[in-house]
Design goal:
seven-stranded parallel β-sheet; 10 helices; binds NADP nicotinamide-adenine-dinucleotide phosphate
Length: about 300
């Protein structure tokens, strides 16, 4: 089986490459913008691919002829999408059009990674049948991309929605809530953390496994792939503090409105995982299990 991964330098992308390169009978083409940032060089090939270039997308897909394409590349900085609307559209929407058309030409399975932010957060946890209602530019861009697939006559696609990704990889372009909280708590704070947003934090290894299971089982349609526990962001940070036995004194509870962020966030998401558990055999780690794994990976 031949699998092409976009955004392979990102958190999910790197985890996917490490997972896929260890699978038997899987040929992997890792692609991302710029140079390869994964130091391991066995078990896969790397090629630079800007997914906002139709010509580059067509060339790479026609040459490699993947059986499945896992599209992780995206502009994931939610507030930046509010001001950089064109960049957000090009990367989060237009790339999907290019990749889907190229996938259709060779009948490849197109697996698109999306987000809990397609929902308005009024009725979480959400199942795959629930109606999206995006609140921000980032959310609308991911929703538009989903709609391109859902409305396409080509049905060889899947959407893997996820929630706050966390994990550790080398050469990360940005941090995530767990690494940031761990580092800030270690110094004793201070941290202002919202108590009115609820999420199911997702270990990047679990999402990578979920995407692989979708490809391996050729499972079509929408799948919710998050961590197994929905909690408030303040609870998440307090659990991280307790896990490492760091003091919680530096933590201050605040509400979302006091942050005055440019992009609106859905208050309460979280996913119902029944479909992924049943069809994919998806079995994600708890937060503490994820922290234990990160501890093994972090450099001393
Ligand atoms: N992170 C979350 O909390 C979260 C939550 C819900 C859903 N998701 C979704 O999950 C997916 C993966 O997220 P992630 O956190 O792993 O993302 P990430 O770490 O931000 O990685 C995205 C990758 O895409 C690459 N990229 C940027 N522009 C590109 C271009 N024009 N062509 C090709 N590659 C390009 C980036 O390269 P550089 O590193 O060189 O910029 C980066 O490596 C995304 O689709 C995101 O929307 C993420």
């Amino acid at each position: 089986m031949k699998i092409l991964v976009t955004g392979s330098n990102g958190l999910l992308g790197q985890k996917l490459i490490h997972l896929l390169r260890s699978r038997e009978a899987v040929e992997v083409l890792a692609t991302s913008s710029g140079e390869n940032r994964i130091s391991a060089n066995k078990g896969y090939t790397y090629r630079s691919l800007d997914v906002t270039s139709e010509a580059e997308v067509n060339t790479v897909i026609e040459e490699f002829k993947p059986d499945a394409i896992i599209h992780t590349a995206a502009l994931t900085i939610v507030d930046l999408c509010e001001t950089e609307k064109e960049k957000c559209h090009a990367l989060n929407v237009q790339s999907v059009v290019y990749l889907l058309v190229a996938a259709q030409r060779i009948n490849a399975h197109f697996i698109h990674v999306s987000t809990d932010f397609v929902f308005n957060g009024e009725n979480g946890p959400y199942s795959e049948e629930d109606e999206p209602d995006p609140l921000s530019e980032y959310a609308r861009s991911k929703y538009k991309a989903e709609q391109i697939l859902i409305k396409s006559e080509y049905k060889n696609w899947s959407i893997a929605r996820t929630i706050i990704l966390y994990g550790y990889t080398e050469n990360m372009s940005r941090s995530n809530v767990v690494l940031w909280a761990r580092e800030t708590l270690r110094k004793g704070g201070p941290m202002n953390i919202v108590n009115d947003q609820f999420r199911a934090p997702t270990l990047a290894e679990d999402l990578a496994m979920g995407c692989w299971l979708i490809a391996e089982k050729k499972a079509k349609g929408i799948f919710h792939l998050s961590g197994p526990e929905t909690m408030s962001v303040i609870e998440m940070v307090r659990r991280i503090a307790r896990y490492y036995e760091f003091s919680e004194e530096g933590i201050t509870e605040i509400d979302t409105s006091s942050l005055r962020q440019p992009a609106k966030r859905p208050p309460h998401t979280g996913f119902v995982l029944d479909k992924a558990r049943k069809i994919l055999d998806y079995n994600p780690h708890t937060l503490e299990e994820g922290l234990a794994l990160i501890d093994e990976q972090l450099p001393l």
